[in-house]
Prior knowledge:
By secondary structure, the chain is of the alpha+beta class. 31% of the residues lie in helices and 22% in strands. This is Trypsin-like peptidase domain-containing protein.
Amino acid sequence: MIEPRSEAIRQLRRSLVRIDAADGTIGSGFWIGPDLVLTCAHVAPRGQVEVVWQGNRLPGEVSEAAPAKAGHPDEPWPYPDLALITVPQATVHDCVWLSDQSIPIATPLFLLGHSSIYSADLKSHSANGSYAGPHGDDDELWRFTGDEIAPGMSGGPVLDLDRGAVCAVIKTSREVDSERGGLLVPLRGLRRLTEVNQAGLWRAHDRHHARGSWIGVRRGLATTRTNTLDAGEEAELLELMTHLESTPDLLSLYSDAVAPSTALPPEPINNPRQLCYQLADLLARPGQPHPLLRLVHRLTESERNPVQASLREWAVRVAGRRGEYEDLERWRRDLAGTRPREIERPSIIVQIKPTALDRHRFLLTVWVQEHGNRGMKVYCDDGQGRDLTGTRTLVAQLLRPLLKRLQGFAGVEFVVPEALFDEDFENLLVGRFSRLGRTNPVAIRDLERLSDDETWHSWHERWRRLHDGAGSAEWITCDDRSTSDEFDAGLRLRPEIALLGLAQQPRQFTEDALGVALYAGVPAAVWSRDTCPEHRSGEAADECSGDRFRQSVSRFLAISRLDELPDVIQQMRNAAAAGKEPSGANVVLLWDDPERRPEPDAPLIELA
Length: 608
Ligand SMILES: [Zn+2]
């Protein structure tokens, strides 16, 4: 068997062409669809060119090219520097698989083009290296680091060796006297072409690849990753999308697919293809079919046969393969009926309070609150208290029978002083194999705020918005420099802020953002108990651990409502424990319902 990366490179080589422009410029290009070549605009700016492919010289015409900067012919060609060439007399040829999605830093890349460096003839020439991040502040150009890029390679394809997709076009080697590598135009730049040409090229591409040899290549490369779709399912879906008869309302399809979340898509959606990719990035909610399956089901309602039958067949097959067939069926049945009534979740409230004399010894009180009743106090310490280790052991002992009695449905809230905010209560062992935070939603609450009425009004107000779906999240990134005063004033201007996100441990920040937010009545907060190693060592990269944590939380939240956060975090802890979401390993949730207050005067109930 051929190694999957070598196979991908072999496929790539079959689509490489040379461009001989009328003015003598020579560059590279590649087939992206039948009779269609992509290259750089600075290689083929306009008019007629000659496309040389496997010894044949074919006449081509530039159908669209990004224009040069007017009056500045010597400056680098402006973004996107891409050109499309139609080659009407082409014989049957291969085409590459394209992706206009972003890729992670350090993705291994293989660059292919023509070069005249080592011989008088133009020979194909390649470069190996990796993606080094965006060039400048926007994502318009990518940096390549690795082998030298030879003259003549401009316009050639850039293969992502992890995903088996051409993700960019070679633009230029760097200025002389700088390190090796060069600049690439990501295929996202295609979005700057006219809509007609974009639609035309993707239609040609997606129809060509429905049963192409790239599916096998991409399957071979995908074995180490978990993708929403298999390479074949993805190609089939994209091909089906090119046959839609109705003109879909993309935004309403998006919100139906992610309902009941009301979040807007992370970036604008201009066509069904982009819609598919944005949904493919999301995770399925537990017990629900994946958003993509929901989208395809909705499309079957507006389409006619045979597209309708093909879409339905695709959805059933993919749901079966993903183990979501029953979820899909149940969801389809429920669509007709009413939404299930929400049952109020019972709660176990565990209060851990330092003793008056020694802040390292704690008094424990436990209440159970069910069906909107007053809390029942089921355990209460008095006297000297005990140290933290002793307290944790006792909590685990007390929780086991309570959780059993509440049939695994209860949320568990730890009311603790700030000093214990980073204590990992979610790791208490409550079953033979299970940690508390994976079996039940676990959150902490602020002991100090519960005994202080000063913040009551804004706390209630923000909590109400959170539940009405009008609340929003505010994030503090690692390098946030705002002072406590600025942050406090900003929060008071925006009463809709109901969730504070911190990219790393609260105490890593010079200002006490968490303290400010709690005092301003923000009812919920989420942070990582980790420090951000990149920022600690001062070697902050383009994307640090803190950023990844934020993205991870946002991805989970995109498919949920803000008021489902305790469930979302439970899901994230499970994903982390399963090795699928490393950033979620040390997530902390503060979730403070102002209505739900432990009742200090409740009598102690002895449990049988
Ligand atoms: Zn950081």
